Each structure stands twice: as C-alpha cells, then as structure tokens.
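Figure 2 data, in text form.
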Amino acid sequence: MTKSFNRVAVYAVFNEADKSSASFTERLLAEGIGSRADARPLAMEWASKKYSVAIKEGQRGMTFVKRDTDAERAMNRVLQVCFPSADLKKSGKATVNKVDEVAKLLKKYQALTAVEKRRFLKSI
C-alpha cells in the first residue's frame, strides 16, 4: 500500500514551522530577551502561573517544587519553540581538552637551564 501526500501542503507546513521559531525569537529580542538562559526564569514563572505550580529557589537557581510536571514540560516546550537547539552553534572542541597556555609556557621555562633562564630574562 502506497500513501500519496500533497507535498506542497506538507512543505508549506514545514516552512511555516521553520519561520515561526525565528519570529518568536525576534519578538523576544525586541523585549530584551536575548537567549534561552534569559528566557528560562520568565518561562518558568509563566508555566507556574498557568498550571498553579510552586517555584523554589535552590542552590542552582529556580526550580519547580515538583519535578516532571505539566508546568515543567510546558516551560521546556515553549523554550524549545522560541530557541530551538538546532539554531544553537556548536563549539568546535570540548573545553575539557583545552591546555592551559600559561601552564604550558611555565613548564617550558622550568625546563631551561640556568644559563638559558638568565639569557631569557635579559632579553625581556
């Protein structure tokens, strides 16, 4: 059994969905919300009022008193629509593997002989 789809209509839905996240982001930018991190507390307040769920302030910031609720799912859904993770740029390398350049130079300096250290210090 082969299904036939109206590709034009399906593509129109995809185009509208693709444009919608950009328009939401532009509207939030106009209000001074520039990132998902900036929008999260406000989205949490919105969800807590809509679903009548309490918020508490913890060591790591604001959280819902009860986890995995409709309010938390709504907050995450709204943030995903306004700031899709597909639009986020990925960093090139993991920060864990980065070498501290100062420590690297200090190690090279300590490997120098006393004569080389004096010659280096005179040159600066």
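Caption note: The longest helix spans residues 7-30.
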